[in-house]
Design a protein that fits this description.
CATH class of the largest domain in chain A: Alpha Beta
Helix content of chain B: 40-55%
Shape of chain B: globular
Strand content of chain A: 15-25%
CATH class of the largest domain in chain B: Alpha Beta
Strand content of chain B: 5-15%
Radius of gyration of chain A: 34 Å
Largest sheet of chain B: 6 strands, parallel
Distance between the termini of chain A: 41 Å
Number of helices of chain A: 26
Number of strands of chain B: 16
CATH architecture of the largest domain in chain B: 3-Layer(aba) Sandwich
Number of domains of chain B: 4
Largest sheet of chain A: 6 strands, antiparallel
Helix content of chain A: 40-55%
Strand order of the largest sheet of chain A: 2-1-4-5-6-7
Distance between the termini of chain B: 33 Å
Oligomer: heterodimer
CATH topology of the largest domain in chain A: Rossmann fold
Structural class of chain B: alpha/beta
Radius of gyration of chain B: 28 Å
Amino acid sequence: MYLKSLKITNFRKFGENNNKVEFVDAKSYREQKDKQELNIAPTTTLIVGKNNCGKTTIVKAVDYLINNKDRFKANDFNFSYLKGLLDTYEELIPKLDNKSKEKIVSPFLQFNICIGIENSSNDLITNIVPFMRLTDVDNSELEIVIKVELENDEVFFRDIKHIIQETQGQQESVLLRRFFELINTSKFKTNYYNTEDEYIKDFKINNLIELRLIKANNIESDNCLSKAFSKIIEYRYKSFLKEEGNELNKKIADINEELTDLIDKRHTTSINQSLEEIESNERLKVLLSADLTFQKMMNNLIKYEYVERGLNIPENQFGLGYTNLMMIIADLIDYMEKYPEDSFNSKVNLISIEEPETFMHPQMQELFIKNINEAIASLLKNKKKNVNSQLIITTHSSHILNSKIHSGYTFNNINYVTIKSNHTNVVNLYDDIIIPHNETNNEKKENDLKFLKKHIKYKVSELFFSDAIIFVEGITEDTLLKYYIDTNIKLNKYYISIFNIDGAHGLVYHELIKLLKVPALLITDLDIKRNKDEKDNFKQISDLTERLTTNETIKKYNGNSDKLDILKKEMFEIENMHIAYQGKINEYYATSFEEAFILTNYHNELLVNVLKSIKPNICKEIMGNENNLNKIKDNSYKLQNKLSKNKSDFANELLYKFIIENDIGEIPRLPKYISDGLSWLAKKLEEEK
Amino acid sequence: MSLSKISPSNRKAEFGSLENIYDCIDTRESILFNSGAGAGKTYALIESLKYVIRNYDKPLKKHNRNIICITYTNVATNEVKERLGNTDLVLISTIHERIWTLIKDYRRELVQIHKEKLIEEISSLERIVGNGKEYELYRKLEDKEKQHFTEIMIENRELFYQNINVKAADFRLAFQKLLNDFSNLLSNISNFRKTVSAIYKIDNYNKCLENIKLKKPKYNKVEYNSIYNSDQLHRMRISHDTLLDYGLKIIDKYDLLKQIIIDKYPFIFIDEYQDTNEKVVLIMNKLDKYSKKIGRNIFIGYFGDSAQNIYDEGVGNKILEIHSDLKEINKEFNRRSTKEVIEVINKIRNDNIVQVSIYDDCDGGSVKFYKGSSENVRDFIDKYVLEWQVSLKNPLHCLVLTNKIVAEYSGFINIYDVFASTDIYKGFNYSQLNTELLSKDLSKLGEVPRLLFNIVKLYNDVSKDTTPVIQLSPNEYFLNEMNFLELKKLIRLLKECKGSTLGEYIKSIATVYNKTNDNNFKKIIEWTFGIENISPESIRNFIIEKLFPNLLEDDIEHANTTSQKLLDIKIDEFELWYKFILDKEEKKEIYHTYHGTKGREFENVVIILENAFGRNKNYFNFFFDNLNNFDTLELKDKQTFEKIKNLLYVSCSRAIKNLRILYIDDISNFESGIKGIFGEIYSFGNNS
């Protein structure tokens, strides 16, 4: 049995769409379990996303359902959902006396939990049987619908009617506030239904799902590790060393007796004698005795020290990163120790680790999943437990994401969480979605996937945490765009990732970009095809008639045609992508960014100086001795061609000059297709706000 | 659209009757709310419940008290739940479920009542054996001989049941050796069987008493199980009627229990009171009176209409004799039908409740009465299938007086015919068949129909993939210790049972049952059949025993062929019957018995009428004949007249818009009576 998915409706930032978190699918579950590499949990699900987008809410939802005992408050409801409800009440409730037959809905939260079932499992059905249908025995999943509903609709409607009448003529905000107060004071109840909306009685979700929360940043005191380990040892002592435990208890009792005896002789008698002088011992007398217990002994028994290069280092002198890691491991060991030894399961066991990256340096984050698994595997080497737990890690670390993608070599079981028009959006990353099925060429699909996973290593995982993304196809754009964005007051407050890809493979990313849902500017090139003759003569192009492109991206969105003369606009807008390429700039069509940059700024002194310093001979050849800047324009193709081997020098030199230039007016302008793209980006980001 | 506009004055007037109820709720004055068909009785009930929630939620919650709402069927339970919305204050259920939850925890007291019941049953059996002619030979035996004979027979119980429906000669052969000393008892096998059955029963009851005394496990509590329609007293198992009986006894006996109920449930609402068992009203009356005695307040609200009393065991208008001091509140609006229909049903009803439509736009319906003959029925229905553009979504609802026609048109005539030819349902008991085979209230089905229903339900459940697993489970703990593999095996075994006829299916079940060692499967089968040791023979014997209770020598063959016929009927036909009972038919024409439409409403209704009803050859003609001389009738005839009137009233008032009646007997003797109610009489068939 495993948790397959969770759909969250109207809870916190979750709305009614894109609200399904996929934990693990049957195939991955089988594969991950078979591998048996991960001892703590056969399956791991990652929830990634920026801050404040609802990652923690997902685990919190499960936690609430299991532990909250119906204490839901107004702020657990989605704000716009409540607002919408209030609007309907305002409209309908005054008409209620007319006995309209339509039923008014009362506020509710809904959670759909999908439980997967392995074939031929010996798990007990005890906790899930109320939801099973005959077909589910052979089917791999079943669904539990949990609704948090009012205890008494009628009482709520009585009060809401009252509130609406009372606040008539007052400001909308007064009504809203009263409405929230009402929700806060209303009693809610958790009810269970099957998918046919039939009420299921006598069921409690906490019988089926168990959740162990391991919070980030749980370093509370200097000796928290010692405490954590005492707890583990105490538990082990009790459950594994039964006879020794008894003996120990006897010893403790003996010690108590001895000490009490001693105290009595040396102190109690004399104290009582002194007291006698004040008040008769009949009324006032003390008894002092030793009170050592197993519990008390254990509390102070363990001293946790790091051993580093043969030296013992007290825990409070050690790095926070290691302490954090050790705390997580201590928590997990505690969990494993308490896991029952039965050979069967009747529960879904979830372990959630929240943002484990805190205090850890990048390499440590990178190795996090591997580390904890190895640590636990070795610690529990001698125990044979049929552990059936699922690990859920919420993170905003691109390194952990990276390591997950690589250790599993798949995008499956990763949930990307983002915000779209004030609602949490959950995107389930699947290999099949990222690289759509290619019927004719299966091999290509495999290769694309390989490529993408490989490239993830370089930066891609960072994209998951960005506000916006810019894809460029060369080092020059990569270097220069950063400067332009830094100085753009509309853009520099956002976290924008610039990602340099090889033009030929740009298309592979498109499905992934669509899934990310954040605005993405893809800067590509016209890549005008020239024949050998034209190349040799550095032919300038001022007309696209009969011209073809070699750019795969343009071909794809140009109706699968490489004919440039049928290109309609100077960009494509596809979902959240803006694909920009060169238009006509000062008479000519540029084939690359460098050429477009030169054409846009041919009379800019800074640029001309850089050109002259990088390619002195070529410049001389083009312009001769006279400083005719028009010549630069007319030879833009030749210049870009000659620059192709010195792109990075060119970019760095420009950047250097940008930085030391005091007069902003002297900085070259970006080509129009890019500045248009940036404006689009700024607009999109503004809309998101 | 018509039937939508309500004038403010009508609205106010309607609210007035609600306010009368509200006032009584506030003063805890128990009420009898009477309203004609389609008056919005359920609406008034829901509004009253809401009123209590709105105004008493806090005190009720604080003292952990609840409101009880009792509905007549499970369908109604769900409707009230749906319309009431979320609530944890109101407990909605049928009467049996509620009574059982009220009393089940008083195990010791119930066992005491059960003991008394057993003793009573034994002495009544002993009385019968002591006086009945059939037991004469046994009676003549010396006491010692009696004891000896009893011992022999009890030892050979199995042999007796194996031979329960063999011919007399074979029976004698089987017992000759054993009963050498009692050969004269075997002279009349039919009497012998009766005698021995009585001995067995007495023995069972005595053993049960003994076990209770010895405090054996399972004998420390009484069980009520809603899936069986007969008691098994010796197994501590009671059925619906006995449950009410015990409920009344225990509440009557223990004042503390009365007080507990009064304190825990200060508001009790009962829907469809007219068809509620007298015992329930007796219980309520006791609670009401006791609450006054101890100075507590309880409110009991009866909602219904005595003119719609159609079940004999229902309390009907006798309610005021049993539960005195009820405040009567009447509602005279009609929220269902067009004024054309209302006009007719008012005339049938002909009492102090004269309904008017609450709607301003209440015309546009029609009622027509046709005379014709039984050959016209099909044509008549076809005419309206066409005229009213009947479809699956807008089916034609046809109320048919003769059960046979309902069965035939609904597709299970063979089942009906078999039952109609059995001893317990032919002749004098014929009218019982209506209830015991066709009732949509499962607790009213006869013993054998209920068994068949359980079997067909199992068949249907297992064949549908969407069936909740828990539905197969005899009790809530049954599935708890199972794992997925065991469950898989169980379902596989259940699916292994197949058969195109009922007999084949039972045989298949028995084969798997005896072959497998899967206890889960065995338990489910035993639970479904209500007996242990499942074999085709044991089921067959059970059926014969129940359908031919006092089998005579000459009838054995008939009994055997009849039961064989029943077993040879296709399981598909049983499924049609099953769906009919559950109101799950998916057809364009849906046939109902007059009783089967309680609380429902249909756009268009066709009623087929005739003189006879059940074994009574002069039923509806009697009604129309005596419309104008009711007062001169004798008491018994008056009661009959009322019954017929109620049935006709309930039937006609189902229609929202159009109502057609076809009378298929000669009506020339009572045309004036019909005209008085339905107006012009049209002809259908050859002469039209």
